[in-house]
Amino acid sequence: MSEHHYTTIDLPDIDRKSLPDCQVLIVDDEQSSRLVLSSIIDEFAQCHVVDDSSLVCQTCEDIRPDLILLDVNMPKKDGLTLCKELKSTANFADTPVIFVTGSADPHVQDNCWQAGGADFIEKPIVASTLVHRVKNALQNALRLSLLRELIFHDQLTELYNRYYLATEVPLLLKHAARDGDPFSVIMLDIDYFKGYNDTYGHIKGDACLKSVATAMNDNVKRPQDCVVRYGGEEFLVILPYTNRDGCISVGRELVEAVGSLAMTNSASPLGKVTVSAGFSACQPSQNTSIEQLIGEADKALFKAKSAGKNRLCG
Fold this sequence. Notes:
Elements: E1 23-27, H1 31-41, E2 46-50, H2 56-63, E3 67-71, H3 79-87, E4 97-101, H4 106-114, E5 119-122, H5 127-152, H6 162-167, H7 169-179, E6 183-190, H8 193-200, H9 202-218, E7 226-231, E8 234-240, H10 244-259, E9 275-282, H11 290-306, E10 312-313
Parallel strand pairs: 1-2, 1-3, 3-4, 4-5, 9-10
Antiparallel strand pairs: 6-8, 6-9, 7-8
């Protein structure tokens, strides 16, 4: 891995959401409650309503809500159980939930907190209270989202960084192990990048890194997948719920996508910028570590480099 000189201190170009962009999911089996809640919240955010608790998880996957208003007492699956299920998933563990309850019983309120609720609102609904609590929850969520973007992203490439890899990816791995799902990792390295920097200079080198990062990010499309800048000219692609065949398919697409950029590199025998890639795919257990998978992918990357570069090895 070569030394790399940064020439920019600009913050990432982050898509900053505002309240009108926020998605609020209202879950209540009573039509009158749904109408009251949605008519008030529609004034400042986008509302979606569900009357069947069994449809909530799929609806969350579809719309990715910024906030969930959840009735405590519902048929099929009560709100407390549903909240615990959502909080146990990687995608919605941080999504705030406000419980809507007709009970002032302190025991019920304690159960709401213990289930992972961020707040609760009592029926009958007081419009001003609903507006203030929903707005506060959404604004806090927006601040947290912005903070996470700034903390977890590399300045130059805008990809995820090593801190995200160390703090968030192990949680994804544990979720996959718990659910009995496969997990894959691809490590990529820009071929002859030291020669590129020596030939064209570090400013062009930075531009090359950004172009390669964009090409990889554009070809990793599922919400749970991510690209990490591992260091210098090395990148990691994290593929939860992806088996060996799927990993190979993604890896080959990434190698081809970078080659298709057709960026000139006179330091390479191929005359253009390319990447080598190594992968590791497994059925993880609770003892599987992300460091173990990265180590296996790194060994496969060495094979790809030794075999002539511009290829994927496992």
